[in-house]
Fold each of these.
Amino acid sequence: MRWEGIFKGTDARLQIKRNLYLRRMPGNSFGTYFRITTFGESHGPAIGVVIDGCPPGISLTEALIDEALARRRPGQSRITTQRKEPDTCEFLSGVMEGKSTGTPLAILIRNSDQRSKDYDHLADTYRPSHADFTYQEKYGIRDHRGGGRSSARETAARVAAGAVAMAVLKTEGIHVQAYVSAVGDIVLDASYQDLDLSRTDENIIRCPDQETAERMISLVNAVRKEGDTIGGVITCVASGVPSGLGEPVFDKLHADLGKAMLSINAAKGFEIGSGFHGAGMRGSTHNDIFENRDGKIVTRTNHSGGIQGGISNGMDIYFRTAFKPVATILRPQETVNSAGQKVSVEGKGRHDPCVLPRAVPIVEAMTAMVLADHLLLQRINRK
Amino acid sequence: MRWEGIFKGTDARLQIKRNLYLRRMPGNSFGTYFRITTFGESHGPAIGVVIDGCPPGISLTEALIDEALARRRPGQSRITTQRKEPDTCEFLSGVMEGKSTGTPLAILIRNSDQRSKDYDHLADTYRPSHADFTYQEKYGIRDHRGGGRSSARETAARVAAGAVAMAVLKTEGIHVQAYVSAVGDIVLDASYQDLDLSRTDENIIRCPDQETAERMISLVNAVRKEGDTIGGVITCVASGVPSGLGEPVFDKLHADLGKAMLSINAAKGFEIGSGFHGAGMRGSTHNDIFENRDGKIVTRTNHSGGIQGGISNGMDIYFRTAFKPVATILRPQETVNSAGQKVSVEGKGRHDPCVLPRAVPIVEAMTAMVLADHLLLQRINRK
Amino acid sequence: MRWEGIFKGTDARLQIKRNLYLRRMPGNSFGTYFRITTFGESHGPAIGVVIDGCPPGISLTEALIDEALARRRPGQSRITTQRKEPDTCEFLSGVMEGKSTGTPLAILIRNSDQRSKDYDHLADTYRPSHADFTYQEKYGIRDHRGGGRSSARETAARVAAGAVAMAVLKTEGIHVQAYVSAVGDIVLDASYQDLDLSRTDENIIRCPDQETAERMISLVNAVRKEGDTIGGVITCVASGVPSGLGEPVFDKLHADLGKAMLSINAAKGFEIGSGFHGAGMRGSTHNDIFENRDGKIVTRTNHSGGIQGGISNGMDIYFRTAFKPVATILRPQETVNSAGQKVSVEGKGRHDPCVLPRAVPIVEAMTAMVLADHLLLQRINRK
Amino acid sequence: MRWEGIFKGTDARLQIKRNLYLRRMPGNSFGTYFRITTFGESHGPAIGVVIDGCPPGISLTEALIDEALARRRPGQSRITTQRKEPDTCEFLSGVMEGKSTGTPLAILIRNSDQRSKDYDHLADTYRPSHADFTYQEKYGIRDHRGGGRSSARETAARVAAGAVAMAVLKTEGIHVQAYVSAVGDIVLDASYQDLDLSRTDENIIRCPDQETAERMISLVNAVRKEGDTIGGVITCVASGVPSGLGEPVFDKLHADLGKAMLSINAAKGFEIGSGFHGAGMRGSTHNDIFENRDGKIVTRTNHSGGIQGGISNGMDIYFRTAFKPVATILRPQETVNSAGQKVSVEGKGRHDPCVLPRAVPIVEAMTAMVLADHLLLQRINRK
């Protein structure tokens, strides 16, 4: 048995172990037509994803997925966690001679480098703003060795599936690009249209403006040295999206994008187009005037963020997602243990001082999956 | 034929009529365990909703639903549209002697007062920031007589279903309350905890601070006189929610709340707890310290907004939803028609200068349905 | 309150009433892309159905639905129950000027002629082979006034939705036709190909062979006079189905047809093509040899029943559904009451001696919905 | 690339290869609450299954799954195909220290022994009663190297998931047992109650009556020597099922069982309880009289097969599934190729003369999954 010996100690602990997880944990699927199901714990043998409904004929290689995974990987720079997860994937099914076949596409990512010991001192403690307490409340016990399914490691499976969705979108000329637009109080004060998004990956914070990027990196470094963490905002732009995607009632395109973003660990807010700023505006200035530009109907401004009435209008789709600071800080904090006693907790091990740069590929992946899903839905709606 | 004669005119118009709606329009269901399906067009005979999965034994009367509908109803005050929709509902099934039976609960709301003529001049014009253009792109034609399924009238069915969900929540001691916290640049600068939310309905803007409410009402009146519209923000608080609701991966409780809010017409942003503000904070100040308060584990602050790791922690859940200004303004605006020609359009008829007060019950209804859904899901997860 | 006064009597009865239905009763939807949700109790104000996903542009009138309902209606002949349900429907949404619009199509059928008194003597008795006992076990109480959702009346909503599905199929040249092929031990000994199915409705038992029909009718009459009931078999043929419908793994076309048939009240068996008879055959005689008939590839025999590997092959689809005899007989039977005491029960009121003729349109309706669902699914699968 | 070189030959063949699978192939999930998604092609690297919604605390080992797989495995006896698939599984997630954790449970089964050459001569030929033609019609091409997803190999993933479902049922005292009750015209003429089902696996045909088993085995051997195949019937009994499982409208327990059975390769018919035989009976003899047996309400007979009104009544559930003879015979048969030309085809390689003994564990697995699904659903329905 692989995990044997992880739990050791008192009878009380064994008792907890025996009752491990008293509830089912369903809800591991996302999407309807491009439907993914992820599986795997951070400290089990592997994680992975099955995509049901992938269109056939899409060019796909394991190298393409690995490349996407590398952008999410821990240890990729000095401002991310130094944990090593040299993720490489294996296609188990659904791809033949470099093309998707249309059958379920299963991708396997083996785990490695699981230092459970780093977490051992936390077994009975509720770390502030972690899922420890809510897991205990919901499941009767939490998996303190890295979070189990609440671990950010689960997002690697999303990134793998997102790379497939991205390949689907590419065949339709759709391009998705995210970048860090704020870290703490350093806000990139420019529209995405004035930025060269192709330069996003030229720095380790993934901000396309190099000067702002430097300031952000300095801030993250300073925060890291203090054992602290910091939040920020990621902006995402989808261009080339055809008009007509999205359903007019509940499954509005931006509602599905919002759910996708808010399902990412640490996300606390989502706004599309003018967002919260638009709430302060008047209709006469907020309305996007239609124009005929060389035979194509476009809008002069794009406060709508490319979606009107829940349906894409052919303009760029752009939105922002807010991420809170990582909860694990390398400083002592007050808290209580499972017995309700006051204790102090201090993060150990290898943690991200700022989740933003590694969250960029996750934002892109979730965006790509929502768009792929609506693209397929749109096909069935044809009379 | 009920709707006969609505379309009259040129052959081109008849041609459009013949091809009316070239696509299916699925996606009229929301929720999984407390699952609603809404139906009806604003200018058809009726709208309504079927709830599949309502728990039995819930006290319900048509009067209770009508009361909820009255808060959403047009014409309820001088700052809303003067359209009259004296909505009263009829239970078609699922309720017997004042109690839900557990069977599908169907609620019917007949339409009335449909002044299609008010919209006739718009048949070929793309109103700025309306769904006209995207409907035309998606469906080949739009229903210009009030928006069809994109009409805000669809939300009456949501409010009816929400009133049922609210009755379910009441049996578990859960209370949902929303209020207007910003109109344009007038922002209610107070935490929900410092407000007496029971006084929200004492004024027509639905802001619990009477002084701020007066200023908001004045602003809406001024905007209305200019033929303009204005956006704002609604804050919603759910108290009494037990810990443990929400799934840890995709179906995080706040992700489902976010989708629910963003599916409401005119919503452009959503944030929970510290939201976008939290993105600027450090972990050491953002983390919610756990405390033992008389045997109950609570958090000292509540930046998490009552949800950690996607799961409720027993603290109040609160979030904010941004609404853009209503797109229909009673002023001339540039735009193009379906032939791509430059034209001017000017709103006529009876429209809301500010959607906020009528959106309050819709926010509450959607919140109640998400919570009812997760309550039921939680039951099945028990071992 | 509409249903007031139905329950009267002892305190024990009131107690039961108060706990009426202790469980939810979800699962009122059928289909995925052509998705129906039915609602309504036999003794409530109305029943109905919402179709989500109906293709637009389908010619539909209320008269068309009423015509379909008339074939299922009680009281249509001397060999069916003499209960009167003069069902006429009302389109609440989704149809405009005689065409479906693609939006949710809601159909309302008001109830009438509910003689609850006919059932009053049964309140505490478990009628043999009825759902009384299982309802009591599952829900804590049963609706003894006609069965509630287990009532055959629910199938009227299916027939209404089926008429819409049939109209969809008609646009693709698909034709569905069912007929009674056995009543008791009178079995119509002929292949569907040797029958003139257009003559099915020429007699009240709905058997296309008039001579056999006469014998069946005589048998039903004899059985009726004895206060007894009798079962039988319905054969259904779908012609014009294009090749390619059905999914190869779980959602095989005949698996979905099987579930659809078995969901009809009193159905106990389903077989497609050679069915149980084929289980006794050898591969060399059972295999359907492919032939090129004037450029079209067909099979010489059709033991497969038009479906191979779960996917339609362009040949006629045909299958048989077995119906048990109606459980209500007008004779005394032993049973127990809810206290477990031995009692005698005797059917009163107006019941069908043989459900077969009225089940024919239900079989057709369920078949049409499965085919419409797979037609729509097939569209999305296109690359 | 693993599969490289499999396709070789003419340009026409390469052209086909390039267009391989022109359609998506969704629908690889089964169940709602105990939900499985299977993946993998017979000639790819692996097959497997992800179970979403498995209850926690269930005792599970890889050995338990392997034991179940061994009963389905080819080459297990002289009357099954001699293909070798020494299936052993690996838990990728969801199990810790021998217990399910409630998280997604992923099971991997590596492929081996893929003799694609055995199929090479079939590339352009439509084998009679195979899925070749329907795949070509639906997907534009078929995977002739063993059937791809239509391969019976997919059922190994079902058996693995079924073993997990079986372990869930065991904790509730539910026992599922299937056996071969007919092969060709040899029909086991005994009720399941008069058989010792524990002796089913004592012979290679899996018939609990040893004398009948010998005759069945002789028949299969004779058929095999003639290069022919033969069909049969499997009876399945579920005992210990609590009353109350099943939904009264569409998701009747026997309707879901029927779909499950009919989704198994080669299944052509399903009947529960009295089934087709019951269609010839009268109500007065078919009705199951309720009795009070030592305080427990039972039925004297069980024509209902343990399900009344779609809901289990606590009696044994039993049903029969008809399987057609395997389509691949080792004799020349007429057919056409993809160009519509008359050709002869003759099965080569290693095939089953009779699928029945290996289908027994598949029937049990699908039954267990339906029951596990309804058990979980039942929990959420509680008020």
Amino acid sequence: MIKKITIVGGTHGNELIGPYLIRKLEQDGSFSQSAIPVDYLLANTAAYKEVRRFIDADLNRSFTDDILNGHDDSIYEHRRAREINRILGPKPNNERFIIDLHSTTTNMGMTLLVRDHAAFNLQAAAFVQQHMPAVKIIMSDRDNQLSCTLNSLSDYALAIEVGPLPNGVLRHDQFAETEAVIKHLIDFALMPQEEQNTALPESVEIFKVTDRILYPRDDEGELTAMVHHSLQDKDFQELKPGMAMLQNRDGTVTNYEGKSGYPIFINEAAYYYENTALVITNLETVSLRS
Amino acid sequence: MIKKITIVGGTHGNELIGPYLIRKLEQDGSFSQSAIPVDYLLANTAAYKEVRRFIDADLNRSFTDDILNGHDDSIYEHRRAREINRILGPKPNNERFIIDLHSTTTNMGMTLLVRDHAAFNLQAAAFVQQHMPAVKIIMSDRDNQLSCTLNSLSDYALAIEVGPLPNGVLRHDQFAETEAVIKHLIDFALMPQEEQNTALPESVEIFKVTDRILYPRDDEGELTAMVHHSLQDKDFQELKPGMAMLQNRDGTVTNYEGKSGYPIFINEAAYYYENTALVITNLETVSLRS
């Protein structure tokens, strides 16, 4: 079914591990003899040059049908999304397995962001986790609804998200870890299906996105709160109602009032654009047997 | 001698602690009754809006006489440097004590960057260190030569630099620490001189900048190395000749070959612009008695 594997870097131009890693893999020919051909794409070339997340709009929110079929050329990332759709698509191109490389400023460690369009994605993530037990798996529901990410070009797609890493910085340890994840993913994609089945556990734990907590802002649009120090860096640690969540500029503290959950993307730089202070997930066990 | 104190935030538009903190101090009136008037300045207003270090050029390299006396209006930060010179200057305006708020992506903790134009600066830094022993003091020689920073507007000036903090992120703990440093600095500035003298230790340890290590790049201008994992986060820990320093894309390792020293700004995001992988300092003991 999968006839090509594409490793994408620089979907966000200030996340440096991807661009540097695809260049390295291309140069040292790591996967040049692979039974399924592996190719590489630097996605947001203009933003990468300027070390910015994006130029005019977030490329990873630009793969909607409206944009891909549209003709408005005023937004750089919309033009680039159409170009990438011609290279990797047309959407959906389910002969292609896409691995999109990202980083986060938050203390999430190594995570795999999985869309549940194909059982293969979760299986591949579980295979990685067997070899690298610290890896966590996140299932996003938002992407299901919006289908706007680069990974939405194929039903077979995963994003690697590693942190904490400041934007505009390369870290050797996280770089090597990302490379190790890619190798396991490609190993899995190359296995015959019966071998894949025996290589997998019965079930896997996933963090499923359920909610987002927004920042408060004043009339001028300025933030009036920041993540409370007791929550900072506590990604994947249970957040219960009544626990301190935001430190307000006026000195008061806002406590969490939702249902118990596991916060992720706590104080992520990129999410200030979307006004999101943190994301809440549920921990669920999912069977890998059909 | 000091007739005004100015606290500056947002000299780099993606370092968020400063802009948020000056807004908070202004709103809660922390220093509104101070015997020396305290005012506030958001320095790079345009870059702050775009959450970028700068728009056209680094504002904190734009306070040279050439730029301040120039008339070329094509670079935003040069225009803004002239405006700030009208507000805080004209350079040098030694009636003003400037505290410029910065952050770093590196693991440097809380540091004070001191220029040795006036004994007062080092004394004020030493006073802070007495109350907050983890604070480190860095003496920059480069600024002496170039005199291009916002702080060069007055001989009485200090920069607060706190990390590790990704650009575009506010951290509560570092925010509170920066506020504490400011309070100690203003306490010191308000003391009568004899009281200042008795409040200080005999001598203080400083890290004096001696060298910079540059990144190698290929013909296309792309980085061909990153900081080696064994050096990452090891700011202020002795770096000796022969220790691993850079991991090259081709798999080899470049060792440090200079004299033993204390590295700082290891893998700083902003220094990729200036191609600097790390800065080397010497640890020196300086007398505070004249």
